[in-house]
Design brief:
Blueprint (H helix, E strand, L loop, with lengths): L2 H13 L2 E2 L1 H13 L9 E3 L2 E3 L1 H12 L3 E7 L6 E7 L1 H10 L5 H17 L4 H15 L4 H12 L6 H20 L2
Antiparallel strand pairs: 1-5, 2-3, 4-5
Helix pairs in contact: 1-5, 2-5, 2-6, 6-7, 6-8
Length: about 180
Amino acid sequence: MGPSDYVLLELLDRLGGVQGRKKLQKLVYISKLAGMPIEDDFFFHYYGPYSSGLASRVDQLVEAGMLKEKTRSLAMSDGVEYGYELTEEARSFLETVRPKVPSKFENSLQAGLSHAAKLKDNEVFELELASTLLYWMAKGQSGEQAEAITEQRKNASRTSDVFKTAKQIAAEIWDKRATAGV
């Protein structure tokens, strides 16, 4: 089990689990930009930043018995939503490993986890918009350019409440990155 597996387990432990694969992807991406030490690379996908490595990691942790995957039917469609939470085996693993984690790694981890905890109750579309804004900013676009791209690609009005919330989330993360010199 590598450092990114440990980070993902800590994230899910701190949040008490996450309902929705898309929400998990967005929380990890935003937390990574906030300083969480996770190695997964993200690329732009239909719902914003996506990591196939993260998706594979989740599947592997389910197969290894470290994560419990729960499904629920979505009322408005024939779809299914997946949720993830730690198993007792994962909790035992974390209790064993935590005392051995170097303090520098732990400090970076805690920075990302604190942001994830603040965002856990946000709507997934808010996180999708915020992560998309951050993605384009991380690719070198100005805030204004990132807003225009996000508005066009997500068909979301910049004047909507959900877009305004996403801008606030993105601004907070981006400002902390600038302060930290990232």
